[in-house]
Amino acid sequence: MGRVVELSGGERLSLRAQLEWHLQYNHYPPVSADFVDSAIESIQSINEEEPDKKVKLPNSKVLTALEICEGLHLESFVNISILGCQDGML
Question: Per-block average pLDDT, block size 10, for the chain (90 residues)?
């Protein structure tokens, strides 16, 4: 579950820093860092087995945690066994 990004010297990036990097560099066009808080809330909701919890995005849209996870490609940040996936595959 999740990503752990280590810098040289064994320092680890925080979840916030990992998500900022993910949204900026794994999407084209890049997703604004303003979406990090919604991404964190979505990840936490899914990991707490509440994928249908409504989460407000910074653009005022309201989506379920699962919809945000899929839209922002956050699968590697959540416990995918909660989503009923087999063999770690979505």
Answer: 56 91 96 98 95 97 96 91 51
